[in-house]
Amino acid sequence: MWLDIVIPVVTLIVGLVGGFFIGIYYFRKQMENMQNNPEMLQQMAKQMGYNLNNKQLSKAQQMMKNKKFK
Asked: How confident is the model at residue 70 (pLDDT cuts 50, 70, 90)?
């Protein structure tokens, strides 16, 4: 009887924690890919409403390379 309440709650908590860590892992991988791929960085900037010129793009890449995502 009490297992009908405990198991779903534990499953929910485990799913939320697991999803959080999987999301963080995916986000870090995407950021690492953007460090090496200027087209991907340019596309992200356009989606956010910014249009970066080459100087701004190289500066953004340099800033991302200085920041470690590991």
From this structure: low
Cβ neighbours, 10 Å, residue 34? 20
Distance CA 12, CA 18 (A): 10
Q: How far is residue 68 from each of residues 29, 38, 41, 49, 59, measured CA to CA in Å?
A: 11, 17, 16, 25, 16
Cα–Cα distance measured from residue 24 to residue 50, given in angstroms and rounded to the nearest whole number: 25
Give pLDDT tens digits for 9-56.
999 999 999 999 999 999 988 888 877 788 888 888 889 898 888 898
How many CB atoms are closer than 10 A to CB 60? 19
Q: Do 35 and 64 touch, CB atoms closer than 8 A? A: yes
Phi-psi region of 49 (alpha: psi -120 to 50; beta: other; left: phi over 0): left
